[in-house]
Amino acid sequence: MAEFLASIFGTEKDRVNCPFYFKTGACTHGERCSRQHNRPTYSQTVLLNHMYRSPVNLSLAPEMQRLGGMSEETLQKHFDEFFEDIYCEMVDKYGPIEELNICENLGDHLVGM
């Protein structure tokens, strides 16, 4: 029995543990998911949700489209300033950073449109 449970852990056949969360560390159902999300007790990775708000999301709004949106240079400058600010702040408070990844979701369903 233990071998069978071990063989289906993290797969669609596993009715207890969420396979999507197991593979990606996130689940589209969030806290409403009917399956367990096994979070690690220790990790060297720190996740800061909703930290970077891309101006592209704002430029998708009708009022920004009427103004012509934002240039690529303006978007890059905004990102560079954010990256430098957050990197310096984290290094000052927590020490050396091995890697810093910033993600943005631009799909309409992911940005509340």
How does this model look, in words?
The chain is mainly α. Helices cover 41% and strands 0% of the residues. It has 5 helices and no strands. The chain has helices at 2-8, 19-24, 55-59, 62-66, 72-94. It is elongated and about 60 Å long. The protein starts with a helix and ends in a 19-residue tail after the last helix. The model has no long low-confidence stretch (mean pLDDT 77).
List the helices and strands and how they pair.
Layout: H1 2-8, H2 19-24, H3 55-59, H4 62-66, H5 72-94
Distance between the termini: 47 Å
The number of helical elements comes to 5
What do the pLDDT scores average to? 77
The run of helices and strands is: HHHHH
What's the total number of strands? 0
The parts where pLDDT drops under 50 for at least 5 residues are none
Helical percentage: 40-55%
Sheet/helix structural class: mainly alpha
Q: Describe the main β-sheet briefly.
A: none
User: What Rg, in angstroms, do the CA atoms define?
Assistant: 20 Å
Q: What characteristic shape results from the CA principal axes?
A: elongated
What portion of the residues fall into strands of 2 or more residues? under 5%
